[in-house]
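User: Okay, second chain of the day. Same drill as before: sequence in, structure tokens out.
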Amino acid sequence: MEKRLDHIGVAVRLIEESITFYTEVLGGTLIDRYRNEAEGVESEIAVMDVHGSRTELLMPTNNTTSPIARFIKQKGKGVHHVAYEVENLDDAIEEVHAQGIRTLEWSRRTNKHGRRLIYLNPADTDGTIIEYCDYPDKQEG
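Assistant: Same drill. Structure tokens below.
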């Protein structure tokens, strides 16, 4: 199945400072900003577009339970995940499972923009959190 880079997720401590860097230094544009307080997400997200490339800035909103907070505590701020768009998320999950790659089922969800996503287990990806995602509404239209 074909995959293409969708976005990079970056864990940040202070989202305002990060937005300023992405707009003033990199010349990017803030596309969207929202909070997701769902269990296993608990973060504020700023979607940045830098000349056609997307970056999601991820700031934890709960320093006890947010996976972003845990990531920052363990590894520091910086690249959290790399997301690849796939044609069909369900088919892509079956494909990686057949290859012996596990997924983090707790991470499977649909975001506010209709993007379905899941993280691959970093134990099976040389330590990198890889997100697979699709956009079912985009495919139908």
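The longest strand covers residues 3-11.

User: Thanks, on to the next one.
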